[in-house]
Structures are given as structure tokens and as C-alpha cells.
UniProtKB/TrEMBL annotation:
Belongs to the V-ATPase 116 kDa subunit family. The keyword Zinc does not apply. This is V-type proton ATPase subunit a. The keyword Nucleotidyltransferase does not apply. The lineage of its organism: Eukaryota, Viridiplantae, Streptophyta, Embryophyta, Tracheophyta. It comes from the Eukaryota. The chain crosses the membrane at residues 421-445, 466-483, 546-564, 584-601, 635-653, 754-775.
Length: 817
């Protein structure tokens, strides 16, 4: 018996029994105790310091330390991403790693990386500057070389003119210019550098305006993009040389260069010196390249070491941070030697938690063990269902509507079957069902690989619901076999059709010439119905009546579950004045309609059920005539109509008055009994104070009951009509499938052309996948979801609980992945 309590009951109908527990933990073993409870993952802590801000709590400094370490790890991750490395998933957990040692190690690694990055940036900047300097020397040297060649040619031309005949027409100024004292000639200065090509025109224009045209600018395009030393980005630049006269002009040029972000470099006119500079710069570039490569190798090795341990370190920091967050929720005893914790845990985990507490005491060498004490409380416990990978997706469908109240009947148990079944009723085609099954089988077979990967939003959603889709596919195959549709094509899978031609002239387009020649087709719809003129009326009638039967059955199941809820919570009022009249009202009308449908199917009667139900209300005493399906039907209809009319006030009036009577009796009984049972005047005062707040508002209760009654009466009609969506979507799916087959595939086949056939097949596949397997699947899923949330769950499910959220390291590991 003791072993049975060690495991969860796996009872999905009721949530696990929970208990409120108080833990008194010695302060020296507190950290290890919380760590072990996090590994166990069965204890939800309550915040006993909710009135304190995060900065006033005991372990605020430790959380700050963990936050700083997390920042360093984020820095490492950014560096690894830049280097093209990813954290290793093979790093094994090493429990010997201490948080204090890790803090020191992370600090050292961060300092080393920052220093490496700073050195690398300086070296890279120097390298880029030297590359630009080399370009300036080469391009500007070309300017001066061409200018000197041009000047020499001009000089030779002048000398030739002087040696010629001295004509009176020769310019006098030229002679004066040639004999001018060289010391009095104007000396031009120049500024050289690189400017962004996109800014070169603006740069030239501003220079011209600022110096009033007293400069000469020469530019040369650099063919390949160069790395800018300031930004480190590849950009296109031009080499420029600006010639000027005067110091003021130079100052303006320098300021304009700074404004445009143009890098300036010194340049010499001496040709020999230029070659020497180029040689020196080339040698320096080789040295810098070697140094940068060595630094990058060293940085890469360091980052690989970090990447190997990154997951382990990150998980350790997250664990410790969560432990200190949890410790901040505990209150400190007045002696400052113990921490007091309160929280919820499942009853089945009691012995596990006690074993963990003992283990933590031993491992931390504490002289005093932790105390485990169960508290009595009237507070509603959290809801915990122990699910597995198959049932968790179905439970999530229910939880999306609302978390079940503690030990309330869980619709998730029935959703496992009813949800995929109602989907399949709308999606019934065993060809489409096989396609869905193959798609979801891929996710199920490779679930280990997918569970360890980071998936996209859509893929992650499909992967999470893989077992839901599998059940939907299996039920779709089942209903498709019942409808006898394989991509809208019927097959004689379970034997030959029961119908045959009366004579050879009859066609499949009409049933007029068909007679029953064999026994009834054993399973599903007879294949001869497909393609006939009466196919649509027949399937309409079949699917509409089937939808009503399924809807009434599911609504009855919901009301029956409300009985089990009331029985479990020992609420006799809900059984007598809610469950009983609701069952009578629903089944007097729509249960009776379901009975008529079954009787009509069994007897083959031609009775008009619309007429029967309408005149049951308008003139219940009239003779039924040809619409009578069985003996005593008229009397039964009158009895059921009266029962339905009686059940409405039965739901409305008794419950509010009985609740008021119960409240008055309880209030009177307590006020007398407490004088004998309570000795402390403070307790008596507190008790009377609490009673005074529990005033019974009869009007509020009555209005609530009135709303509930109206909602059920109107909902019984609207919810039954809502189940007709099963018929509508099933018909739409069948007709769409038939249109794609007849108007695309068969039409393309009829042309006897291989190209048209291939195009037709491609269009048919795209239409089937895009419309029927994606859009129709989503549509049927949403409609099945609505039928469960509104039509089924509102009959019994309150969904006002809150989820059990234990302190667990398993959640941190999932986040890390």
C-alpha cells in the first residue's frame, strides 16, 4: 500500500489530491534543500514575503551576483555567434563546479576576451589605416608623376619658343615670368586622403564654395571596396589631393575633411621616398596580418573552450538564480536560524519530499533536520493532472478554455476520443485521413530529434499536437470508410453493392432502374449511392440526423458529468434542482427527437419529423395521422411536453430559496455553538467579524439562477442546432473533394494529352493539399474545438481553478534547449 502512494494515480478524471505543507529548514541546509526540491519538481512554494520589494529581500545580493554572471554568459554567447560557434550540447554536468569558482572564472574569461577584442580592434584599425595610406601614396604618386611629366613637356615647349626667332609678337609677360626670381614664386601646399565615393561630389562642392574656388582638387577612384578604419565596414572610396595656397585655406580644408569623415594622410613629392614608404608599409602590413591571425586563432580556441562548457555554466547560473528567488519567498524565523516555507504538493509525493529533506540534511552536514508539517486550510488547492506525451496535448485543449477547479471532473478524459471523432465526422475521407496519418507519423517517428531542436512557430505547434493529429487521422479513416469515400471515389471494400440494374438499359445517373439484388452492404454507405441523382438528398438526411444524435448524446454526457461533480462535492441541491430538471428538459424535447430518428430508421417510415416536432408544441392534442411512428406516441408527446414545461420553474425557483434557508440555519447554529467552543475573546470577535462579511444576497443569487436557467433553456435549442455544423462541414468536404476529382483530374484525363494530364495531376495535388488537407483540417479542428468548449463543457465545467506550478529545474532545462 505504501508503494502505491509513491506514484501518481494517473487518474485524469480527477486532479491529484493536494496538501498545504509547511517546511522548517535550517539556514545552513536551505540552499541544498531547495536545490533538491527543484530536482524533484513536486513542490509549489507560496510567497511569504509578498509585502517586500525585491530589493528588501534577504537574498537580493546573491540574485544580483547571478544576474551579473548571466550578463557575462550573454556576452560570451554574442562573441560565439560572431565567431560562428554554437554551444556544445555534449558538455556533461559537473556537480563539482561551485558558484563562487564559476564567478571568478567567468570574470577572468570576460577580462581576457575584452582585452583580446580591444587589441584586435587596435591592430585591425592600424592595418586598415596602413592599407589606406598605401593607396594614397600610390594614387597621389600617379598624380604628381603625371603633373611632373606635363610640366616638363611644357618647359621644353617654352624653351623651344625662346630659341626661335624673337618676334615682336612674343608675349612680354612670358619673358618676365621666366626671369622671375625663384624665391619669389608662390609655393602651393596640398592635403591628401580618402573620402567616401557617395560623398565625393558634395565634398568637392563644399571645398569650392568655402575657398571661393582658390583650390585645385584631384580625385581618383579606388576600384575595390576598402575597410574603413573607424567603422570597420567595407565601403567604396576615392583618393583625393587638394592643392591650396595659404594657411587659412589649409585650415578650412582640414575642417571640411573632418566634417565629411575623410581620412587624411601625409604624402611626399620625392619619388624615391614614395617607393621607400610603399615598401615599408607593405612589410608592416604583413607583420600586422600575421599578428591578427595569431590573435584570432587564440580567441577562437578560447571561445571553443567556453562553448564546450557554456550550456553547463548557463544551466548552473539559472538554477542558482531560481534557488535564490525561491529562498526569497521564504520567511526567516525570529531566531535567524531557520527558514519557514509554505507550499502545495501532491499527496503521493509526501514520502519523496521527506526523503529529499533528509538527504539535504545529511549532505549539508546540518545538525538539525528539516521539519515537514501538513497544514489544514480552506484555501482551494491548485489543479494537477499527471499527463504523458500522449495525453498532454488533449489536456492543453481543455486548459486553453480554463483550468479545472480542484478535483472537478476533467473533460480532457473524454476529449481524447470525442474531439478527434467529431473532427472526423466533418473530415470523413479515408484517403485524406491516410495523408494526415503519414504526415503526423513523420513527426512521431522523429520526435526525439525534433524535441531537441529549436523549431519555428508553426512547426512547433504541429509537433506539439502530433498525437492529436494522429487520432484525428485514424478517426478520419474510420468515418471515411463509413462514408465510403477515398478522395471522393467509392470502393466496394466490404463486398459487392446490394443494388443492381433491373435491365441493361439503366444508368447509374438514377436509382429508378436499380433494385436490391443482394444483402445490405455490410459496412458504411453502399457505393451505388455515389454519383446518383438521389445521392445528395440521401446523404443530407443521413448526416443531419446523425449530427443531432451525436449532439444530444454529448450534451447528455455533459449533464451526467455535472451529476458526478455534485455527488463528489456532496451538493444535493445541484443534483435535485439542476441535474434532474436539466435531464428532463433536454430529453423531453431533443432526446425524444433522437428516439424518433432511430425509430424511423428502424421501421423505414415516411413520417415527417419536422411536422411532428412543430405540432408537438402548436397543437399537441391533434391526431398524428400518417406521421405516427408507434402506438401511444400522442400521449407520450403530451407527457414529455408537460415535463419540459415543469422542469423550467423546477430549475429556477427552489434553489435560491433553499440556499437562503441553509445560510440562515448555519448562521444561527454557529452563533450559539461558538460561545461554548471558543474561550479566547479575540477568537470570538474574529469569528463574528468573519461571519458579518458572509452576508447572503438573495437577489444576487436569484438573478444568477435566472440567468443560468434562461441560458440552459435557450442553449438546449441553440446547442442542438450548433451540432448541425457536423452535417454542413461533412457535406462541404465531400463536395469539394468531388469537384476537384471530377472537374480537375477526370477532365484532364479526358483530353488524352500527356502534358494536360501532368498539369491536371499537379493542380489536383495542390488543390487537395492546400484546400482539403490544410484549410479544411484547420476549419474542422476549430469547429470541433467550439463544440467541446461551448456545447459540451458549459454543461458541467466551471474551469475557475489555477494550475499547479511546482519549482522544477526540468522547466529550466527545456528553456535552455
Amino acid at each position: 500500500m505504501g508503494e502505491g502512494r509513491q506514484r501518481p494515480t494517473m487518474d485524469l478524471l480527477r486532479s491529484e489530491p493536494m496538501q498545504l505543507v509547511q517546511l522548517i529548514i535550517p539556514i545552513e541546509s536551505a540552499h541544498r534543500t531547495i536545490s533538491y526540491l527543484g530536482d524533484l519538481g513536486f513542490f509549489q512554494f507560496k510567497d511569504l514575503n509578498s509585502e517586500k520589494s525585491p530589493f528588501q529581500r534577504t537574498y537580493a545580493s546573491q540574485i544580483k551576483r547571478c544576474g551579473e554572471m548571466a550578463r557575462k554568459l550573454r556576452f560570451f554567447k554574442d562573441q560565439m555567434t560572431k565567431a560562428g560557434l554554437s554551444p556544445s550540447v555534449r558538455s556533461a554536468m559537473n556537480d563539482s563546479v561551485d558558484l563562487d569558482n564559476l564567478e571568478v572564472k567567468l570574470g577572468e574569461l570576460e577580462s581576457e576576451l575584452i582585452e583580446m577584442n580591444a587589441n584586435h580592434e587596435k591592430l585591425q584599425q592600424s592595418y586598415n589605416e596602413l592599407v589606406e595610406y598605401k593607396l594614397v601614396v600610390q594614387k597621389a604618386g600617379e598624380f604628381f608623376h603625371s603633373a611632373q611629366s606635363s610640366a616638363a613637356a611644357k618647359q621644353r615647349e617654352v624653351e623651344a619658343q625662346q630659341r626661335g626667332e624673337g618676334s615682336i609678337d612674343s608675349p612680354l609677360l612670358l619673358e618676365q615670368e621666366m626671369v622671375t626670381d625663384p624665391s619669389k614664386q608662390v609655393k602651393l601646399g596640398y592635403v591628401s586622403g580618402l573620402v567616401l565615393r557617395e560623398k565625393s561630389l558634395a565634398f568637392e562642392r563644399i571645398l569650392f564654395r568655402a575657398t571661393r574656388g582658390n583650390v585645385f582638387l584631384k580625385q581618383s577612384v579606388v576600384e575595390d571596396p576598402v575597410t574603413d578604419p573607424a567603422s570597420g565596414e567595407k565601403v567604396e572610396k576615392n583618393v583625393f589631393v587638394v592643392f591650396y595656397s595659404g594657411e587659412r585655406a589649409r585650415n578650412k580644408i582640414v575642417k571640411i575633411c573632418e566634417a565629411f569623415g575623410a581620412n587624411r594622410y601625409q604624402f611626399t613629392e620625392d619619388l624615391g621616398r614614395q617607393f621607400q614608404i610603399i615598401t615599408e608599409v607593405s612589410g608592416r602590413l604583413e607583420e600586422l596580418k600575421t599578428t591578427i591571425d595569431v590573435g584570432l586563432v587564440h580567441q577562437s580556441n578560447l571561445l571553443q573552450t567556453i562553448a564546450y562548457h557554456f550550456e553547463q555554466w548557463s544551466l548552473l547560473v539559472k538554477k542558482d538564480k531560481s534557488i535564490y528567488h525561491t529562498l526569497n519567498m521564504l520567511s526567516i524565523d525570529v531566531t535567524k536560524k531557520c527558514l519557514v516555507a509554505e507550499g502545495w504538493c501532491p499527496v503521493f509525493a509526501t514520502s519523496k519530499i521527506q526523503n529529499v529533506l533528509q538527504q539535504a540534511t545529511v549532505d549539508s552536514n546540518s545538525q538539525v533536520g528539516a521539519i515537514f508539517h501538513v497544514l489544514q486550510t480552506k484555501e482551494s488547492p491548485p489543479t494537477y493532472f499527471h499527463t504523458n506525451k500522449f495525453t498532454s496535448a488533449f489536456q492543453e485543449i481543455v486548459d486553453a478554455y480554463g483550468i479545472a477547479k480542484y478535483q472537478e471532473a476533467n473533460p480532457g478524459v473524454f476529449t481524447i476520443i470525442t474531439f478527434p471523432f467529431l473532427f472526423a465526422v466533418m473530415f470523413g475521407d479515408w484517403g485524406h485521413g491516410i495523408c494526415l496519418l503519414l504526415a503526423t507519423s513523420y513527426f512521431i517517428i522523429r520526435e526525439k530529434k525534433f524535441s531537441s531542436q529549436k523549431l519555428g512557430d508553426i512547426t512547433e505547434m504541429i509537433f506539439g499536437g502530433r498525437y492529436v493529429i494522429m487520432m484525428m487521422a485514424l478517426f478520419s479513416i474510420y468515418t471515411g470508410l463509413i462514408y465510403n469515400e477515398f478522395f471522393s471515389v467509392p470502393f466496394e471494400l466490404f463486398g459487392p453493392s446490394a443494388y443492381g440494374c433491373r435491365d441493361p438499359s439503366c444508368r447509374d445517373a438514377s436509382t429508378a432502374g436499380l433494385v436490391k439484388v443482394r444483402a445490405t452492404y455490410p459496412f458504411g454507405v453502399d457505393p451505388k449511392w455515389h454519383g446518383t441523382r438521389s445521392e445528395l438528398p440521401f446523404l443530407n438526411s443521413l448526416k443531419m440526423k446523425m449530427s443531432i444524435l451525436l449532439g444530444v448524446a454529448q450534451m447528455n454526457l455533459g449533464i451526467i458529468l455535472s451529476y458526478f461533480n455534485a455527488k463528489f462535492y456532496e451538493n444535493e441541491l445541484n443534483i435535485r434542482y439542476q441535474f434532474v430538471p436539466q435531464m428532463i428538459f433536454l430529453n423531453s424535447l431533443f432526446g425524444y427527437l433522437s428516439l424518433l430518428i432511430v425509430v424511423k430508421w428502424c421501421t423505414g417510415s415516411q413520417a415527417d419529423l419536422y411536422h411532428v416536432m412543430i405540432y408537438m408544441f402548436l397543437s399537441p392534442t391533434d391526431d398524428l395521422g400518417e406521421n405516427q411512428l408507434f402506438f401511444g406516441q400522442k400521449f407520450l408527446q403530451i407527457v414529455l411536453l408537460l415535463a419540459a414545461l415543469v422542469s423550467v420553474p423546477w430549475m429556477l425557483f427552489p434553489k435560491p430559496f433553499l440556499l437562503k434557508k441553509q445560510h440562515d440555519e448555519r448562521h444561527r447554529g454557529q452563533s450559539y455553538a461558538l460561545l461554548d467552543s471558543l474561550d479566547d475573546p479575540a477568537e470570538i470577535e474574529l469569528h463574528h467579524g468573519s461571519n458579518s462579511h458572509e452576508e447572503f444576497e438573495f437577489s444576487e443569487v436569484f438573478v444568477h439562477q435566472l440567468i443560468h436557467t434562461i441560458e440552459f433553456v435557450l442553449g438546449a435549442v441553440s446547442n442542438t442546432a450548433s451540432y448541425l455544423r457536423l452535417w454542413a462541414l461533412s457535406l462541404a468536404h465531400s463536395e469539394l473533394s468531388s469537384v476537384f476529382y471530377d472537374k480537375v483530374l477526370l477532365l484532364a484525363w479526358g483530353f488524352n494529352n500527356i502534358i494536360i494530364l501532368i498539369v491536371g495531376i499537379i493542380v489536383f495535388i495542390c488543390a487537395t493539399v492546400g484546400v482539403l488537407l490544410v484549410m479544411e483540417t484547420l476549419s474542422a479542428f476549430l469547429h470541433a474545438l467550439r463544440l467541446h468548449w461551448v456545447e459540451f463543457q458549459n454543461k458541467f465545467y466551471e474551469g475557475d481553478g489555477y494550475k499547479f506550478q511546482p519549482f522544477s529545474f526540468a522547466l529550466l532545462s527545456e528553456e535552455n534547449k
